[in-house]
Design goal:
heterodimer, A: 749 residues, 4-stranded parallel sheet, 3-stranded antiparallel sheet, B: Rossmann fold, 2 domains
Chain lengths: 749, 364
């Protein structure tokens, strides 16, 4: 059986692309077959549209969970891409000939990775060993990437593919898969010849590895074709970036330096073999200059010469990347790589990002995105420049239709959903506490990255709400605590997705039963409380949340006193939790105040708990009018009696003074008790107490201290003026020394 | 010519005459102007290989790429600057490069604080100058001058130790590639093949910082310490072998066993990097550099000790004495570091190290 003209390439190979173009020009085939999933043929048309700019990638993905995908990145120097372009320009037909993506996705293997993965990784390790310091990538580049001799590339690549096959035959994991693929490609060729294309009218572009296999494979029969496993798959074209290409090209042969390969391709087009070397080194020199270090043209010239000599030492006439990088290191970096690292990153990887013209084969999620942009009148924000957007979530009563009335609310839903999906189009600017709850601020900026992120979200669902809901489900499943789920719940509310709210609520219910710390529960209660309070604004019924908030609230009340047995470093967290719970209770009538107040008064009265927390509990009770003045003065004198260690008394006072200071300051009886307490202390005890009281008063403002001084002055029969002067006067030398002496105070006494 | 066998140290080109001749005889590649062999043969000479039937011993082990860069630099007639910690074989590499390229590694200027501009350019035989006036015969040519005339490579050792005006004298030579002698109103252009290999020590940084103008005229290659223990052991082993055999040092002792070399290299590497080889434990480093070169001389020393006063093989006792001498440069600080090392690391290494540990501990 006769075979079409086969051209074996290395994927992402500039020399391969150039030699392939020359072959196509010479043979002028009527049909070009390209290695790629044959069900992706519809993408060919989009690939050659005028607005399409490489790098782009073809993405095929399963329609159902678990989502798996395969990715075929194409750069301008991909032989496959150039073949497709040539066919388009010269009126030849073009088809993909590999197994359909449905089959690839259905094949049983743990992780396909992205891309072909066709070459066995170990074979490349072996090659690394043989190539010595150069490694396989440099070996390739040195041997094949710069060759201009006609036929040399084809022969070299074929020899390489053949040896690789001999070494790995039967040993690699995807060996059987390769055989199946080759049989399928042969079948496509047979079919084409049956259609009436003569073998010499067909050029087939394939990985060099497959050349031998294709020669020997028998075409796949109808029965075999039917027996292939299949999984429903979707596919799309997406913009790609050189950065991604370099970090995860997916091809076994790798493509670490796409920008540099782009330079080689340019060099081929210009017919200047040393173009890449010159541009690479002057690119690094330019970056150095931009960073402010001197980099002369003379150094660049020396670099080019040095790289040339390094190549000659290895028997090649054109320097490869390694030679160039070492030359840059020596001539531009003065021997230190850190000096040129940024320049090399730019010259090797670069920041190029592909683009697709409007309307080109979008995934359904992209279509959904653009449709929503239009309905929500957000199209003008699809711009590279960042723009602010302020939203008012309230109903706009001056317009007639419901859509218009809630336009901003719907925009908010939409943007929150994107945020949940991790699409970097909209950045949420959290609003300050004091401003209105119905306002939201966003900064919108469009970038190709956002488009890529959007396409990747296609794996999660067909529309933005679907994908967002899937993402939130994932987060709930991965959450390791109540607070994590509560965060999802909040997001679900922000996104206006009742179903996700229900789902998260259920999960939360299950989790809240498990033991959790007071701090975490209180944080959860606060989040839920916010949602219940402001959920109405987002037109969602918060009712399902009420039972769970009640449950968490009650639980907090029950474990409060236990949580108050802690040291001072942990007390801060408990105080925050108490504040949150108090706020939540005050905000909602359905939270019964009784258990909360009783828990607080337990904490306030019991002596074995952290005194600062006891003081703080008393402060809350006082503020809420749940503690009588007599009770307070009783507590003060008890807490500040002579028997109690001074630090405990002062700690209690500190806790007490953390809230409603004005009320405290105005309460003369309190200061009377404090004054009485001080009178009872002997000198040593006074010094001790002074240290802690100083700390307790440390965060009072000057004005507050003044008022306290006035109070005490009144008790001691002094007038306010005198006290204020005494308190605010600079410390006398002697007092200063005494205070400094206190710093050495031995607390262990 | 004096009898060479009783010289303390022969220049590289004489020591490795056979290898150089074999390489030149087997030459297959084009030879640059002014060179005696092709760049590839130079590489073989330095990194080892074969020339026809003659095996070529490696002179510089590890980092072949750096040698490639150095050779390629000299092919482009650029000057080469080798930078590195003390004892990273900068001078060694520079000597062998000259030996292979020119067959003459003796055009050397030793850079010191006392080096003058005349030593870089030329000076005069003053008796003759006063008697006859300036004439070529009265002129004393510097190694750089001679190298320019002959189209060869001159070496400047420890360039960063020279005063900056002396360094400046090199700038014009390297950029103009000619030297002018106003006294004789002539200008001597450099022949093809002329270049300069300079070495500089990173520990001397800041003594006389090289000007940007001068640095720009050099291609700079940084020589690192050996990458792995195996590599360092290989360097030490082969150098000690060469020292004892090739250089005719009659130490009448056996070559150190691999075990001894491994111990010395391990101790040196650990103290140099401030952590154990497996990276599991931090330890205090010493004030000295403890370079590979020191390890080599330490072992040669121990061999001398063993040969002269002992049974011919290096015992743990010999090694302990030599180690202490090498490690403790600054009595107070290094003494503490060494003691800590013995107690915390060496003592816990098990029976293979026990003998050495005991001897070391005894000496303290």
């Amino acid at each position: 059986m006769e075979l079409p003209i086969l051209f074996g390439v290395r994927h992402l190979s500039p020399a391969g692309a150039w030699h392939l173009l020359r072959l196509l020009e010479e043979k002028r085939p009527r049909l070009v077959l390209v290695e790629g999933p044959c069900d992706l043929d519809p993408l060919l048309e989009d690939l050659v549209r005028p607005g399409t700019q490489t790098p782009v990638a073809m993405l095929a993905y399963t329609q159902e969970a678990p989502v798996r995908s395969i990715l075929y990145p194409l750069a301008v120097y991909s032989p496959e891409y150039q073949a497709i372009l040539w066919a388009h320009k010269n009126g030849a037909r073009c088809r993909f000939m590999d197994l359909p993506s449905e089959v690839f996705l259905a094949m049983d293997r743990r992780e396909r990775g992205e891309g072909e993965g066709e070459e066995d990784f170990d074979a490349y390790k072996e090659l690394d060993r043989l190539a010595g310091a150069d490694g396989h990538e440099m070996f390739w580049e040195r041997t094949l990437e710069h060759t201009t001799a006609s036929g040399a590339y084809l022969r070299g690549a074929a020899a390489f593919g053949r040896s690789l096959r001999e070494v790995t035959a039967g040993r690699e994991a995807d060996w059987p898969e390769n055989l199946v693929r080759e049989a399928h490609m042969r079948r496509v060729m047979e079919d084409a010849m049956a259609e009436g294309y003569a073998p010499e009218e067909i050029v087939a572009v394939t990985g060099a590895y497959h050349l031998e296999g294709l020669k020997n494979a028998a075409p796949m029969t109808d029965r075999e074709k039917k027996a292939l496993p299949r999984k429903a798959a979707g596919f799309t074209l997406m913009p790609y970036s050189y950065y991604r290409l370099s970090s995860r090209s997916g091809y076994g042969a790798g493509n670490k330096a796409p920008a540099y390969y782009g330079l080689i391709w340019e060099g081929f087009l210009r017919g200047e073999p040393d173009y890449a070397a010159r541009s690479y080194l002057s690119g690094i020199a330019r970056s150095l200059r931009e960073e402010g270090s001197p980099a002369s043209s003379a150094s660049v010239i020396e670099g080019v010469r040095l790289a040339g000599e390094l190549a000659r030492l290895r028997g090649s006439s054109v320097p490869v990347l390694r030679d160039l990088r070492d030359a840059a290191l020596t001539c531009l970096g003065e021997g230190s790589f850190s000096a040129i690292s940024r320049g090399t990153a730019r010259a090797e990887i670069g920041s190029r990002i592909g683009a697709l013209p409007e309307g080109v084969s979008r995934t359904s999620i992209q279509e959904d995105f653009y449709r929503q942009l239009k309905t929500l009148k957000l199209e003008k924000y699809r711009d590279m420049a960042a723009q602010d957007l302020a939203l008012d979530l309230r109903e706009n009563r001056s317009v007639k239709s419901r859509e218009a009335a809630f336009l901003d609310l719907n925009r908010s839903f939409f943007l929150h959903r994107l945020r949940v999906l991790g699409v970097s189009f909209a950045a949420w600017q959290p609003v300050q506490q004091d401003s209105a709850t119905w306002a939201e601020r966003w900064v919108l900026r469009w970038s190709p990255e956002a488009e890529m992120e959007l396409v990747e979200s296609a794996l999660k669902g067909d529309t933005i709400p679907q994908a967002a809901s899937f993402r939130m489900k994932e987060r709930v499943e991965a959450a390791d605590g109540v607070a994590g789920v509560a965060g999802v719940l909040e997001d679900a509310f922000a996104c206006g997705m009742p179903e996700a709210v229900r789902y998260a609520t259920g999960a939360l219910q299950g989790m809240a039963v498990d033991a959790a710390s007071l701090e975490e529960l209180a944080a959860t209660a606060q989040r839920l409380s916010h949602v219940v309070q402001y959920g109405g604004l987002r037109l969602l019924d918060p009712a399902p949340l009420i039972p769970i908030l009640q449950q968490i609230y009650l639980r907090c009340c029950l474990i409060l006193s236990a949580a108050c047995t802690c040291d001072d470093s942990a007390a801060g967290g408990v105080i925050q939790a108490m504040e949150r719970l108090n706020a939540a209770q005050l905000a909602h009538d359905f939270l019964d105040p009784a258990p909360w107040l009783s828990a607080l008064s337990d904490v306030a009265r019991w002596d074995h708990l952290n005194t600062r927390l006891s003081g703080f509990a008393a402060a809350i009770l006082l503020e809420r009018g749940a503690m009588e003045p007599e009770e307070l003065s009783r507590e003060v004198s008890r807490r500040l009696s002579r028997g109690t260690p001074a630090e405990l008394g002062a700690g209690w006072f500190q806790g007490l003074s953390m809230r409603n200071r004005y009320a405290l300051i105005a309460r003369l009886s309190l200061w009377q008790s404090l004054s009485d307490y001080l009178d009872t202390l002997d000198e040593e005890e006074f010094k001790r107490a002074l240290v802690f009281l100083r700390r307790a008063f440390a965060d009072f403002s000057a004005k507050e201290k003044d008022s306290i001084g006035e109070n005490l002055g009144e008790l001691w029969g002094l007038n306010g003026q005198q006290v204020s002067e005494a308190v605010n006067a600079p410390l006398a030398q002697e007092a200063q020394e005494m205070l400094e002496g206190l710093e050495d105070f031995d607390f262990d006494l | 010519m004096a009898d060479k066998t009783n010289l303390q140290r022969l220049p590289a080109e004489e020591l490795f005459q056979n290898e150089l001749n074999a390489l030149m005889a087997a030459e297959k590649y084009p030879v640059p102007a002014g060179w005696r062999m092709s760049p590839r043969s130079v590489l073989t000479y330095i990194c080892g290989g074969r020339a026809g039937d003659t095996p070529i011993t490696p002179k510089y082990i590890g980092h072949q790429r750096l040698v490639e860069i150095a050779i390629a630099t000299l092919v482009t007639d650029r000057a080469l600057l080798l930078i590195g910690e003390p004892g990273t074989a900068k001078s060694w590499l520079s000597e062998h490069l000259c030996a292979a390229i020119n067959g003459d590694s003796t055009r050397v200027i030793q850079g010191t604080a006392g080096t003058t501009e005349e030593q870089i350019r030329y000076s005069w035989n003053y008796a003759m100058l006063i008697a006859q006036g300036p004439s070529p015969a009265a002129m004393l040519k510097s190694p750089v001058y001679r190298a320019m005339e002959e189209g060869a490579i001159a070496r400047v050792e420890e360039i960063s130790r020279c005063a900056s005006e002396v360094q400046d004298a090199l700038i014009s030579i390297l950029s103009e590639k000619r030297i002018s002698v106003p006294e004789l109103s002539v200008e001597v252009p450099a022949k093809k093949g002329f270049s300069v290999i300079a070495t500089a020590n990173t520990r001397d940084k800041g003594v006389n910082e090289m000007s940007a103008a001068l640095r720009r005229r050099f291609n700079i290659v940084v020589l690192p310490s050996p990458e792995s223990l195996e590599e360092e052991m290989e360097i030490v082993r082969s150098r000690v072998e060469q020292l004892s055999a090739g250089l005719g040092l009659d130490l009448s002792a056996q070559l150190p066993a691999g075990d001894v070399v491994e111990k010395v290299c391990t101790i040196f590497r650990e103290l140099r990097s401030g952590q154990t080889l497996d990276g599991a434990q931090k330890l205090k480093g010493t004030s000295g550099v403890l370079s590979t070169a020191e390890a080599i001389s330490l072992l040669a020393n121990s061999m001398a000790l063993a040969g002269s006063f002992g049974g011919g093989t290096i015992t743990d006792r010999d090694l302990a004495a030599a180690l202490q001498g090498a490690v403790i440069k600054d009595e107070d600080k290094d003494g503490v570091a060494w003691k800590e090392y013995l107690q915390n690391i060496m003592k816990k290494r098990g029976s293979r190290w026990l003998g050495l540990y005991k001897e070391c501990a005894e000496l303290l």
